[in-house]
Design a protein that fits this description.
Layout: H1 2-6, H2 8-11, E1 21-24, H3 28-38, E2 43-46, H4 51-55, E3 59-60, E4 65-66, E5 70-73, E6 79-83, H5 91-105
Length: 108
């Protein structure tokens, strides 16, 4: 999550026409404390029963958590980009993600 925070301005156009939602099976209290402590500029959503993860094929029932899949959703609700799984330690993953965000938001 730190890489998202540290690259937020460039990858997510500093939040202009972009809403970044991080979905986790962690409790709301845990997510709120973590987000505040690390100063994350995006929204965390708690999915304790994995319903969102299941809907997007990202829930790992064995471990009771959602995997690091990433979806870029266009304003019309269509999924314009998928990274399954998202490789957060690979710098090229952020290049592809930034290009997908730019494509959907119309940034040249």
């Amino acid at each position: 999550m730190n890489a998202y925070r540290d690259q937020y301005a460039t990858v997510f156009n500093n939040g202009t026409d972009v809403v970044l939602l991080a979905v986790s099976t962690d409790s709301p209290e845990t997510l709120a404390a973590w987000a505040k402590e690390a100063d994350y500029p995006f929204i965390f959503l708690s999915d304790p029963d994995g319903a969102v993860g299941k809907a997007y094929g990202a829930h790992n029932a064995t471990y009771g958590l959602d995997t690091r899949n990433l979806f870029v959703v266009a304003p019309d609700g269509t999924i314009g980009y998928r990274a399954i799984p998202f490789r957060e330690t690979d710098p090229t993953a952020y290049t592809a993600l930034g290009a997908a965000v730019d494509s959907i938001t119309g940034v040249p």
